[in-house]
Structure formats: C-alpha cells, structure tokens
Specification:
Elements (H helix, E strand, L loop, with lengths): L1 H8 L13 E5 L4 H12 L4 E6 L2 H15 L5 E5 L5 H12 L6 E4 L10 E2 L2 E2 H27 L7 E5 L11 H20 L6 E6 L13 H10 L3 H12 L9 E3 L2 E2 L11 H21 L3 H4 L9 E2 L2 E2 L1 H11 L7 H7 L17 E5 L4 H12 L5 E5 L27 E2 L5
Helix pairs in contact: 2-3, 2-8, 4-5, 5-6, 6-9, 12-13
InterPro entries: NAD(P)-bd_dom_sf, SDR_fam
Pfam families: adh_short
Protein name: Ketoreductase (KR) domain-containing protein
C-alpha cells in the first residue's frame, strides 16, 4: 500500500538547490531520469555538466534538447561511457581525473533485461549494475576528495547512486532485484568506510517512472507502468535533491524527497542483511582488485578499509591485532568486547559496575552488538542509547542473547541519528 500511496499522492518538490560553479557528472544522461536531472541541474546554474552516455549520438541530442529548454549553451560535454566494459569505465575515470574539479557524480546508468548474457566474465546485470558501478565509484573518489580539499568552504562533493523499488512492484527477472540489493549493501559498507573522507555517499529511489529502464520487460509490466508510474521529470527531482544534499545524507537512502531508511527491506535492516554485507564486500573487492590492481588500497584511502563495518573495525582486523599481541589464537568479538573498558591490549573480563545510561556509537555491527550486550549485562545498567547512522534498525536485533550466555538487562529502545542532533 505504501508504494501506491507514494506513486499517486506524493509528489517530490520542484528542485531549487543551487549548483552554481559546480561540475556535475551524470551517467545514463541521454534519456529518462538522467536527462531530466541534467536539465534541472543546468537550470540551477551548474558550471559544467558531463553527460556520460553509451551512445554519443543520443548524448548530443540530449545536449541540444537541454540547451534549447534552459537557454544555457556551452555548459555540456558528452563523454562516451559504457558500464558493460571495464576498460571503458577505467578510461572514463582517467579522463575525469584531469578535470579541475568534480563536485557531484550521479550514478544513474543501469540495465534491467530478461536476456541472459555474459559480459566481462559475469552475467551482464551484475556486471553493469554492481561491479562496474562500484568500480566507477571507487575510481572517482580520489577526484571527489581532491575537490573537497581544494574547496573546503564550499559544498561537500557528493556521490549519489540511483536505486529502484521496481523489484517491489513487478515480478521481473530476479537478476535485476538481486543486483540492486547487492548495490545497497555495498554502498552502505562503502559509506561506513568513507566516513570522514570529505565525500558524501548516498542512495536515492526515484519511484517507478516512465523511463526506458524496463523497455525489454513484457507487456504486463508495461501496462502496470502506464497506470502508476511518475513522469521522468517528477522522478528526477529526487535525484537532484539528493545530489545537492548535505552531510546528513551520508550513507542514507532517500525516497519521495526524504531520508527513509525504514523503507529499505526488512532483510537489509536485519542482522542477516549485515552479515550478507560483510561477506559481499570482500568478494566484490577481490573482483575489483583483479580489474584494477591496488584499487582497494589506493581508492578507499582510509585506515578502516583494511577491515571495517559501518565505521568500526571488523572482526578480522581485531583478530589480527589481538592475536599478535595477546592471544595464542584468534580472539572472538566477545573477548574483544570484554576488554573494551580495560584498554585495547588488556584482555581482562569486563567486571565493572554498570551505569544508569550508556551511549554507544556504531552499535549495529557485530562488535557494537556484542559490546552492548556486555554493558547491558552489568548490574546497574538501565538504558543503552545506540547512536546509529541509520534510523531504520530493528530494536529486536539487540535483544538477542549473546553467545557467552549473558542476558541483556538494558532497554534497547532509543535510536538517534547523530547527524540530526
């Protein structure tokens, strides 16, 4: 019901945010949402807009259309870009690196097709929607960070990835839905690793629109789309809103022009979703390393990149450090959590008295979850306040019995998004 209410009764606001002086890159900008988003961004005084398209001829046609409607010639460049080719993605990124600045990247290009085809060694939907999109994001991060460093008093650079709720409204080929699920998990992990980098990474769902994304899907879905879809202009407003959003949008999912992490699927917000995220990241990272050796060390230039989850060290990173210094075997998360209040290198039981109220940041990952369980087990602890990036976490996650047998006595019922404080 929420989907239909959104489609029929919620209309995202007309875009008014300024892009004055900014350089913006939009992939898949020759038609549909990308085209209309580019039209808005030029209207909002962007200094330079790069249309990244697979077919330069259609890109030039899009350029002429926008110039005519906005009366702003000379703003556009049309660059060839094909997510079905890893070489094309890398060549595109090399060209971007030579630009004076890049303020915003809107990763809009994607495919939804019922046809099975192997491209670059993987099924084409996974290649285009997941692997190449992540490859592009990682390769463009250095330029975005450079822009942030050179222009510290201006808006933070943004990387906005366009997702979709199409999987919730039509029984399409599962590959598209799977690719978008993978994309959400990977971007959430990436945003956690890049916190503090000076670059905003966010995700946007424009709703079901009259774009050409599903042009290969059958007549049944075509009829459904005619009845409920938004115009591409209305849908593109959400892209523009998130492409100009501030730091409070980092790692967030937007739909209907607002932060709506609770609109993500139950699986994505569950412990199983987090575990899938932790498994998926190294698998995709390995593929990206094969494509572009050194990309994970070079492009995710953050100490947390060597093992992290939502801004916290991962089990593997902790195990390596603890095993080397104190433990003859790999330490468990429980063992590390027990040492937390005693200092990183002091593996003593956590036997201090509890406190009335305890605040923990990053309590949704495996370490934070176990740490909360230990603190909650202390006699005097009444309430644990978990400060999360996401407001859509299910409180039931933190009522489970930890593996060492301690029973959580605290109330895990207060969730605050720190960027809103």
């Amino acid at each position: 019901m929420g989907f239909f209410y959104s489609q029929f009764f919620i209309k995202p606001e007309y875009a008014t945010q300024s892009f004055t002086g900014q350089t913006v890159i939009i992939t898949g900008a020759n038609v549909g949402l990308g085209l209309e988003a580019a039209r808005h961004i030029v209207r909002l005084q962007a200094a330079q807009v790069i249309l990244a398209v697979r077919n330069p001829a259609t890109g030039e046609a899009a350029k002429r259309s926008i110039e005519q409607s906005t009366g702003r010639p000379g703003v556009f460049q049309v660059w060839h870009f094909d997510l079905a080719s890893f070489d094309s993605v890398q060549s595109f990124a090399e060209r971007v690196a030579r630009l004076p600045r890049v303020d915003c990247v809107v990763a809009n290009a994607a495919i939804a097709t019922p046809t099975f085809k192997v491209v670059e060694g993987h099924e084409q939907t996974i290649t285009v929607n997941v692997i190449s999109t992540m490859l592009l994001a990682l390769l463009l991060l250095p330029k975005l960070r450079e822009t942030a460093e050179q222009h510290p008093d201006e808006s933070m650079p943004r990387l906005t990835v366009v997702l979709s709720k199409i999987k919730n409204t039509a029984d399409m080929e599962n590959r598209y839905a799977t690719s978008k699920l993978m994309e959400i998990l990977l971007l959430r992990e990436m945003a956690g690793r890049m916190s503090g980098s000076g670059v905003i990474i966010n995700m946007v769902n424009p709703g079901l629109c009259h774009s050409k994304l599903a042009r290969e899907i059958g007549w049944g879905f075509w009829m459904f789309k005619q009845l409920v879809a938004r115009s591409t202009e209305v849908g593109s407003r959400t892209l523009v809103a998130w492409a100009s959003a501030g730091r409070n949008s980092h790692g967030m999912y937007m739909t209907d022009g607002r932060i709506a992490n609770e609109a993500l699927s139950t699986f994505v917000r569950s412990l199983e979703g987090e575990q899938a995220q932790e498994k998926l990241w190294p698998e995709i990272a390995g593929i990206l390393e094969d494509i572009h050796p050194g990309i994970m060390q070079k492009e995710v230039d953050n100490p947390l990149a060597k093992g992290s989850h939502n801004g916290l060290p991962s089990d593997n990173a902790l195990n390596s450090k603890l095993e080397k210094d104190r433990f003859p075997r790999q330490a468990t998360v429980d063992e590390y959590a027990q040492t937390f209040n005693q200092g990183f290198y002091a593996p003593a039981p956590l036997d201090r008295a509890g406190h009335d109220v305890v605040l923990i940041t990053g309590g949704t990952g495996s370490l934070g979850l176990h740490l909360m369980a230990h603190i909650a087990s202390l006699a005097n602890t009444q309430t644990v306040i978990c400060l999360n990036r996401s407001s859509g976490i299910n409180p039931d996650l933190h009522r489970s019995k930890p593996s060492n047998g301690l029973i959580c006595r605290a109330q895990f019922d207060i969730y605050i998004n720190p960027v809103l404080l």
